[in-house]
Amino acid sequence: MSEIEKKPIKITETVLRDAHQSLIATRMPTEFMLPIVDKMDKVGYHSVECWGGATFDASLRFLKEDPWDRLRKLRDGFKNTKLQMLFRGQNILGYRPYADDVVDYFVQKSISNGIDIIRIFDCLNDLRNLQEAVNATNKFKAQEGRGEAQVALAYTLGDAYTLEYWTSMAKKIEEMGADSICIKDMAGLLVPYKAAELIKAMKEVTKLPIQLHTHYTSGVASMTYLKAVEAGVDVIDTAMSPFAMGTSQPATEVMVETFKGTPYDTGLDQNLLAEIADYFRPYRDECLANGLLNPKVMGVDIKTLLYQVPGGMLSNMVSQLKEQNAEDRYYDVLKEIPKVRKDLGEPPLVTPSSQIVGTQAVFNVLLGERYKMATKETKAVLRGEYGQTVKPMSQEVIDKVIPGEERITCRYADLLDNEMDKLEGEMKEWKQQDEDVLSYALFPQVATDFFKYRQAQQEKVDMTQADTKNGAYPV
Fold it and tell me: Are residues 284 and 154 part of one domain?
């Protein structure tokens, strides 16, 4: 090993975003995060992932918090550490494609409120759906000197996903003007030796830093990181041990220990990390006690590798079958999933494509005839609204589900008119900050409910006690 030059592996900490999103449905409140920020800021992380993904929706919907406020408070506390977010291309953090002016404004507001690195992905790996967000980040960086665009490729398996596919994507990402590449293995499908092969191949075609993100669902993630680091990966995503493993990431302290005394030594202080872990541990115990953390998500689910189905998608499918009293059809649906995926052009299974494929497979099995009924999302995929798939979609299925309809071959957002002014007009009575328009754009109903709650709090009105009939509001 001595002849290998020193290359300390960098660490992105996920405990403030993906770790609690994966284990406790994104329910960690801001007030719990703030007391530990000072210690986390001293660690020397490459970045701390703390925003985006489902945090935006969950803050407004369940925690009655303003996500922008969370970001500003975290930015205030992290004086020396880059903050990172997850961003779903043209869907931003919502569930439909938005016009470019909304994407631009969201990127601008994210960076000006404190985000340094925007990790941008698309559920079909259609780079056209990422270009606008990358351009907006680069434009902001040129003006303000801050902001990095990282393009994430959703890792998946299938005939189309050869090493040539991944290397050609890496080259294209560099040409797009991204600052770095992330391999986003949301289902824990990347096994150790394949990881080494993938990183080596990508390193040969691009000078961009490569980051690896995986989940422990299938039980191989730590070994996958080990091989990837030896193969030259630049950054890995890990979570503090109380919120690591299971459907989350490998544990930060374990990976730091693994590389100690090697050319990849992180140089991070285990004593400091232990203090941070001590802070999170009682909260984890509380989540176990109140049922927010289900021990089921802590184990290894090898079915993920057998069926290439992410854990969240499996649990979704089981509950759909339960509702129909059809749990005995579980294996039929598992066999149907790869067929539906193939019909739809073999997309990666990640939000929202995983839900679309899973639900359609359930319908196909329960109704006894394939595509007898197609969901509106399945139709949208077939029409090309989600973008271009790696393989062509089944013509037979297209003819059955959307006969005679025109299909979209351009980037879907090219068909959308600017919508910021319209959105602003719809919600102006609630607007207290520019960012409110963006919250409304992504989740109109949920944001409006939050704005009403916020107003009641500011006016010290207790909505739960309010006697709305007689207009009496106890303070």
Answer: yes
Shared-domain flag, residues 458 and 318? no
Residues 20 and 93 in one domain: yes
Q: Of the candidates 170, 171, 106, 117, which has an alpha carbon nearest to the alpha carbon of residue 141?
A: 117
Residues whose CB is less than 8 angstroms from the CB of residue 201 and which lie 6 or more positions away in sequence, other chains included: 163, 166, 167
Q: What is the pLDDT along the chain (475 residues), one digit of tens a residue?
A: 445 789 999 999 999 999 999 999 999 999 999 999 999 999 999 999 999 999 999 999 999 999 999 999 999 999 999 999 999 999 999 988 999 999 999 999 999 999 999 999 999 999 999 999 999 999 999 999 999 999 999 999 999 999 999 999 999 999 999 999 999 999 999 999 999 999 999 999 999 999 999 999 999 999 999 999 999 999 999 999 999 999 999 999 999 999 999 999 999 999 999 999 999 999 999 999 999 999 988 989 888 888 877 777 877 888 889 999 999 999 999 999 999 999 999 999 987 899 899 999 999 999 999 999 999 999 999 999 999 999 999 999 999 999 999 999 999 999 999 999 999 999 999 999 999 999 999 999 999 999 999 999 999 876 666 554 444 444 4
Collapse the DSSP code of 418 into the 3-class scheme (helix H, G, I; strand E, B; otherwise coil) and give the result. coil
This prediction's pTM: 0.93
User: Which residue range is the domain that position 326 belongs to?
Assistant: 309-409
CATH number at 14 reads 3.20.20.70
Max Cα-Cα span within the chain: 81
**Token couple for 148:** 């990095």
